[in-house]
## 1
Amino acid sequence: MSPACFPYPLVRPLLFALAPETAHELAIAAMRTAGWLGVLPAAEPWPDTPAVLMGLTFPNRIGLAAGLDKNGEVIDALAGWGFGFLEVGTVTPRPQPGNPKPRLFRLPEAEAIINRMGFNNHGVDAVLANVRAAKFRGILGINIGKNFDTPIERAVDDYLACLDKVYAVASYVAVNISSPNTQNLRALQEASAFDALLIALKRRQAELAEKHGRHVPILPKIAPDLDEAQIQAIADALRRHRLDGVIATNTTLARSGIEHLPQAKETGGLSGRPLFERSTAVLRQLAAALGGELPIIAAGGVLDGAMARAKIEAGAALVQIYSGLIFRGPALVRECVAATRQSA
């Protein structure tokens, strides 16, 4: 059965009857088992609406955001959903369990998710093994972060360690400095820390490009909880250090519009529909500040094709989805691809 035809509305009540993280683990296990048994559906043919960015040809403008497949375990299963690109991670140098459970919460009334996962992953070596074992040969981004117990003043070391390892297999590398669930991580977006990180990443990128004979783009991922001055400063730094692109945005700490919901009191990053307006406002400001000098991958609150198209119209070159898949299922991918084709 084609993923686009999968009867997700019938399955969703069963998944929503489970704890969110249990449902997530069950979905990953089902896809992994289908791969082991060799019964994955044939990959959907990519629509012929390519976008050439950062030296890469994206078959379409819709990608999977990091977080769904943290360890690169189900790349081949996800490849059949019709995405133009996939992003796995966030991965850290060493394995880590993440924050204590429960740490993932659904807010169905708002079509929203709150998570405080804390970069739970099997470590960069395990992810590399999974990527190398996958048959997928499309565009694959790997999202990197720092271990929770690495002091923030040594964070650059963790990013460089991950970059060294994933460079040979990644189509691009996303640098997660904006998760609200790792203590002090967002401080890396502040002017001096951001400059130091970008200098180190660009220096190592040049060394690795010479070693491997190819240039792998690097894209920092920024938060939605930034004011105009901070967005301008980030844009200036991205241009100054000649970054390849940027991802906007991660989840938000704000709870505007959902304060009345009991689970809104849970700490962590909010994603889904309530994030859309704020993340799109940051996208629009960032696009204006960059003046088209580097591409933006937009993420945040896309639950239908019109919302994906709105991201393109606000200045994005590509769009990522994740939380929307929890509420809409695989059919969302094709809907967003069709909507953004009209905007191309």
Note: DSSP finds eleven helices and 13 strands in the chain.
## 2
Amino acid sequence: MMAEFSTLTVEHLGPIRRITLNRPEQHNPLTPRCVREILRAIELAGADAAVRAVIIRSTGRSFSSGYGYVAEDVEEGDFAQHAGIEDDATAMIGLGSGWARVWDCPIPVIAQVHGNCLAGGTDLALHCDLVVAAEDARIGFPPVRSMGVPPTHMWLYNVGPQWTKRLLLTGDTVTGSEAQGIGLVVATAPADELDQAVLDLASRIALIGRDLLIANKRVINLGVELMGRSQLQKFSALNDVIGHRAPEARAFSERIGELGLREAVRERDRAFDTPDRLA
């Protein structure tokens, strides 16, 4: 019997399992419940001998605009309730441990990115094995401008040190097409053709035997691990906790209290509104 989910839907497409985040009106926030449900759906797909590839996509205008909070999605112990330094550190390290379950899924996982893929949305996408994006998608981590460090930090392993610095020292975003040029995504398609493009790729992967897919993914992931992935992730989480207590972060929190999140973000980003030519 399949598990039931409230924040996402799951489809069985032959050897492909497609997981769709389904809170379009809120830009698919990664609430504690949503994260738990994604991880559970990935776990079920990875354990199903009939499944050879997984797709994670979203409805609405955004893949995900990042971490968010919906009251009914929070349970005792969730990071939304933590305030102290040690609680914050435990929560941020826990985020990395959670997304590592996507990274360590035995079979290939493809992120299908459209619209906004920001902040925590990139934590999810970059823990997938492959990212395919709409040409006009918007990808980045703007919270580095006022809040801290990407807590799971998979950027370095996808685009190398210079582009990681270029994006994380400014908080700038790139389009899907620009992301392909720097290696952040493996392929792009027009937004209205994205579903089919990703299904075609997943179907091509599914032509390979499951045991061979598992073996090849395991070797590649170990190579990344030998580069220090999990240790860098813990270090990033701890530096994110430090960032949460920077003067700029405290000031930004105050502005959120005064203006609301949307207006505080607009005020913060106004200085970055000049045209940015990345390529």
Note: The chain has a mean pLDDT of 94.
## 3
Amino acid sequence: MHGGRASFIANSFLPLQAAVSFYGGGIHTLIDRTKKLSGPQLFFWGGKDQHIKTEHIKAVTESLRHAERLFINVEISDADHGFFCDARSSYNPDAASEAWAMTKAFLKNKLG
């Protein structure tokens, strides 16, 4: 299981105060779990990601809106799948730096 999807699943099973998902492929197949999310979820997607389709992201965000769950949805237009992992060829240091800053701010806001 991939980390972005695992974060989403954990947030739907555990009483989390917040969760962060980086390029969570397959979340669109789990949208029945959106109503069970316990904490707000921060999503990061790469605009150049060929693994996750735009319509899949839209299905996730529409499901979250319908379930009235708190979320933040971020697309980094020049990033590909795996942009945060410095061991991958798709690593994008600028995108990773920006996503890390947003992640820290989100968690500080939600967790104190």
Note: The chain has one domain: 3-111.
